[in-house]
Amino acid sequence: MDDFCKNLAMTVLTQQKHRVVVLVRPGLLPMELGIVHRLFGQAVSDSGEPLYEVVTCTPGPGVVPTDTDFTVNVAHGPEALENADTVVVPAAEEDYEPQERGRIGPDVERALARVPPGARVASICTGSFVLAAAGLLAGRRATTHWKSCEEFRTLYPEIEVDADVLYTDDRGVLTSAGVASGIDLCLHMIRTDHGAEVANRVARGTVVPPHREGGQAQYIDRPVTPPEQCSTGPAREYALRNLERPLKLDELAGRASMSVRTFNRRFRQEAGLTPMQWLTQQRVDRARRLLERTDLPVDRIAADAGFGTGTALRQHFHTALGVSPRTYRRTFRGAAGGPVT
User: What is the pLDDT of residue 178?
Assistant: First the structure.
């Protein structure tokens, strides 16, 4: 009888585990698959019992090629999705090819049709294209890797694309940005299910921060349009040489031999920004480079970048990137960076 009770208790406990099913496709990124298994696999109760069961499936079980020199042998087919509580769709190599609206393989479409109503669905990186093609993101807020955001926005105008955040959670459908943002996404789901204490334990065990500040903006390198390719080029060239100075609109227009009105219009056409928006962006970019490469204090960086004061730099920096100069330097210079004052 004791053995029977033990077995019954174990069965009940197993039934209570939240079932996470990862749907992988050929050309999968192994790191993204590993993130889901590692993080959910480490989530345990106060008594040490696993809180999740993680299963990998694919439309055609067997050997699945990855984007590396090794394969993954997946035993489960799409039937594994039928009793999923959460479904995670990682990226695959095909997502990085030019996309077209609604492109989804019939096998993946049939697999997703097996997901039970009410199950939570999430994507990592460009796996969001699969959710969009399946109609799961219509009318919702979503994100994807910053390199793919414009393409995503063009293909699916009914989706509210947020290019700056690390992940989104809109009514049970979640998306994340780049590969490592899958960590942030999984920690968010664990925190939602079981609270901050459990999520923090998982983060400590994985040696990652339980919550990262800011979003994708701090990781995007925005190239400057070559001056020779635009009629406002002379003004841009002049501005980049004199960023530390206070620059006025009429001064920049004069450098392009235009009236202020014409200069404003041409600048918008060529840069997609007003001259002052572009100027602020260039100053933030200079501040970023100085934070990454030097130990200069914030007040000195603010002067060199044309913000005047450390307070002004902090305000513009946080608006543009979602983090403080101190946090940015710590992220990109680590222990090599000096103190930010």
Answer: 83
